[in-house]
Prior knowledge:
- GO terms for molecular function: DNA binding; zinc ion binding.
- This is C2H2-type domain-containing protein.
- The protein contains 10 helices and 20 strands.
- The protein has helices at about 20-30, 50-60, 75-85, 105-115, 130-145, 160-170, 190-200, 215-225, 245-255, 270-285, and strands at about 10, 15, 35, 45, 65, 70-75, 90-95, 100, 120, 130, 150, 155, 175, 185, 205, 210-215, 230-235, 240, 260, 270.
- The protein starts with 7 loop residues before the first strand and ends in a 7-residue tail after the last helix.
- By secondary structure, the protein is an alpha+beta fold.
- The mean pLDDT is about 85.
- Among the domains are: about 175-225, 2-Layer Sandwich (Double Stranded RNA Binding Domain), CATH 3.30.160; about 230-285, Double Stranded RNA Binding Domain (2-Layer Sandwich), CATH 3.30.160.60.
- Strands 1-2 form a two-stranded antiparallel sheet.
Amino acid sequence: MHTGDKAFQCEICDKWFSRQENLKIHLRIHTGEKPFKCDICYELFRQSGGLKRHMRIHTGEKPFKCDLCDELFSESGTLKRHVRIHTGEQSFKCDICDKRFNHSGTLKRHVRIHTGEKPFKCDICDERFSDSGNLKRHMWMHTGEKPFKCDICDKRFSDSGSLKRHMRIHTGEKPFKCDLCDERFSDSGNLKRHMRMHTGEKPFKCDLCDERFSDSGTLKTHIRIHTGEKPFKCEVCDKRFTRNDSLNIHTRIHTGEQPYKCEVCDKMFSQSGSLKSHIRIHIGEKPLKC
Length: 290
């Protein structure tokens, strides 16, 4: 309508629209209907535009170019946000902690840290998420879908970010540097966790025993001490473990693998701890006192 009137109302949330077609698209938020399907990875979308943008992931098409650094982007919105890196513009401010952001969506997601809001729920296991992207990646855990493939080693990933991080294994790229010790990392998350080694920060607390941890993965593993959960099973003898690395060490019993070698006498060991204990024979170290 040219008058700006909004004559079409959503009966579920009372939001108004100027065109019936816009109301029809909006209703898919409530119904969950996603009529547009990607023929390559079968991901579903509510709007044709969403499918069109998604297809650029597979085709590699990046029609939007930054005039300042010539970097290319698949979406105009991503380019717009990128330009703010050059301009330093951060016009969106959190009213709770005054932290500023260069995008309204980033601010909206940030505020959920303070409110604890997790509006996105997995229909399979009921786990909730503060971000739709996290839910989307989580769903692939249930479906086993991995639409992103490494062209070098053919390993597949459930999201483009994981593929991008994986590629650094092949390229050796480590773009994230610690300002305190100059150690470099291929992933920003690894740098963030590393920084806590310097700061001593342990933001993750166990609700059962109040022990604190520097990263969520260690907390998740610790929780299994209380629950007794052992998700990692040996395929040879069915013995179960709380940690994947414990399973890997155990598996060497069956395979006979001994990756740790004594540099003095060339004796081989299946565990680093066994090698460490063995080394004391050569150096005469006796750390255990009666």
